[in-house]
Each structure stands twice: as structure tokens, then as C-alpha cells.
Design brief:
It comes from Pteropus alecto (Black flying fox). InterPro entries: GPCR_Rhodpsn_7TM (IPR017452), Olfact_rcpt (IPR000725), OR51/52/56-like (IPR050402). It is a multi-pass membrane protein. It holds the Pfam family 7tm_4. This protein has one domain: Rhodopsin 7-helix transmembrane proteins (Rhopdopsin 7-helix transmembrane proteins). The protein is mainly α. The chain contains eleven helices and no strands.
Length: 274
């Protein structure tokens, strides 16, 4: 929360950072902060004060926000990968392609696509009949953890979550992979050693973070599929970590390692000391 807040304040106050790339970074930081505020306070309340109860409507609201924002974050990674592709592969056309209007349209697309496609997930779970079991085997209201408490058949819930998840996250990951493949090909053609090293360092760290975001989600899905062979605590742990670690790493990888962001933070600190 602290790192993302500093990043947002720096981009807001530094006029030199009022550019499309940093607007996308601000959007990612906002998603991380809202996602953490949706999940972590309840998790801490459970572990610190043993405050386990959650209301029926509160549970499904948390479920919707989690699914929606995770899909939005994946889509934002995809747009940022496209931004890097244009910057490295078509640098002369970058100012005419990646404009403020492009960022606004991308934000609307990210919002609309994920809000509507993830909406049926909590609706399908809420329409189920819940009988005697009321204890969720998780510390957050994950879709299948809640649906398993129902007396009804949850096949439709499983199919829709699987289809929506792989349609959204899978398509984003494929486009990200192609973007970085083109970037790598363009970087390897660079004759200036310094430029190639800088491009590889920046894009490499971005790709590793995106890969981590996707891999931990894939592991979580696989542990659910093989739940009989895996301890029930493992999916719970992965679920919580998936909401914490990317949000903590994003401002470091995308922010602190960016020279312009570091300089912006330094200028703000100097102003405060004067």
C-alpha cells in the first residue's frame, strides 16, 4: 500500500511523468491497492482477532471484486506489454500511437471487458441453495470454496469459471508472450550494447513479473484439480499470496527500477526537505 501510494503521488505531482506509460502504471497501482483493501483486512481480522464471520452479500461482493480486479490486472499487463512493444519496435511512431486517447480507450476496454465477463461468477454462486454447511475452507470468498458448500450441482459454476478464466487470462498471456517475443527479436538486432542491455533488463523484469502472476494462478488451479493429492492448506496459501506478492512487486519492478520514477521521487523528497 505504501509503495503504490508513493508511486501514485509521484506520478500525480511530477509534470514530467504525465505521459501515457505512467498513466498505465498509475492504473495498475490503483488496481493493486483496491485488491489489497478487498482481501487483506478480512484475512488479518481472521488471523489477528479470530473474526471469522462474513455476511452473505459481503462474501459475494468480495468474490466479484477479486475476480474482476485480477482480470483487470492481467489485461493491464497486456496493454503495458503492447506499450513496450511499440516503444522498442516502432520508436518513431510511438508518440502518434500511444497517446492519452489510447490510454483512455484502453482503460474503458479493461473496465468494460472484465466487469461484464466476471459478473456471472458471483451471480451463479449466489443463486445456489446453501443448506447446513456455512464454514468456508478458505480465508477469502473464493468462488469454488463457497460453491462447494451448496446442496446443488455446481458444474455450471466450474465450467463458467474455467472458461472465463482461460478466455481472459489465457488470451492476455498469449498476447503478452507475442509482444515480448517481438521485443526480444528487435532488441537482439540493436548494435549499441548499452541500449540492448537496458532494454533487456527493463523488459526482462517486466516479463518475469507477468510470468510469476500467471504461474502462481496456474499452480493454484492445478492444486484445486488435484485436491485429493495436495494438502487443503496449499490452495488457501496460494490464494492469499496471489493477492499480496504481485501487488508488492509491481511498484518495485515497474516503478523503482524506472529511472524517471526514481528521479521524480528524489525531486519530491528534495522539495520536502527545503
Amino acid at each position: 500500500m505504501g509503495a503504490n501510494s508513493i508511486l501514485l503521488i509521484t506520478i500525480r505531482l511530477e509534470a514530467s511523468l504525465h505521459q501515457p506509460m505512467y498513466y498505465l502504471l498509475s492504473f495498475l497501482s490503483l488496481l493493486d491497492m483496491v485488491l489489497c483493501l478487498t482481501v487483506i483486512p478480512k484475512v488479518l481480522a481472521i488471523f489477528w482477532f479470530d473474526l471469522r464471520p462474513i455476511s452473505f452479500h459481503g462474501c459475494f461482493f468480495q468474490m466479484y471484486i477479486m475476480n474482476c480486479l485480477l482480470a483487470m490486472e492481467s489485461c493491464t499487463f497486456m496493454v503495458m506489454a503492447y506499450d513496450r512493444y511499440v516503444a522498442i519496435c516502432h520508436p518513431l511512431r510511438y508518440p502518434s500511437i500511444i497517446t492519452d486517447q489510447f490510454v483512455a480507450k484502453a482503460a474503458i476496454f479493461i473496465f468494460a471487458r472484465n466487469v461484464f465477463i466476471t459478473m456471472p461468477i458471483p451471480i451463479l454462486s449466489a443463486r445456489l441453495r446453501y443448506c447446513d454447511r456455512t464454514v468456508i475452507e478458505n480465508c477469502i470468498c473464493a468462488n469454488m470454496s463457497v460453491s462447494r458448500l451448496s446442496c446443488d450441482d455446481v458444474t455450471i459454476n466450474r465450467i463458467y469459471q474455467f472458461a472465463a478464466g482461460w478466455t481472459l487470462l489465457g488470451s492476455d498471456l498469449i498476447l503478452i508472450f507475442f509482444s515480448y517475443t517481438f521485443i526480444l527479436r528487435a532488441v537482439l538486432r540493436l548494435k549499441a550494447v548499452g541500449a540492448m542491455t537496458k532494454a533487456l533488463s527493463t523488459c526482462g523484469s517486466h516479463f518475469i513479473l507477468i510470468l510469476f502472476f500467471s504461474t502462481i494462478l496456474l499452480v493454484f488451479v492445478l492444486t484445486h484439480v488435484a485436491k485429493k493429492k495436495v494438502s487443503p492448506d496449499v490452495p488457501v496459501l496460494l490464494n492469499v499470496l496471489h493477492h499480496i506478492i504481485p501487488a508488492a512487486l509491481n511498484p518495485i519492478v515497474y516503478g523503482v527500477r524506472t529511472q524517471e520514477i526514481k528521479q521524480g521521487i528524489q525531486r519530491l523528497l528534495k522539495k520536502e526537505w527545503k
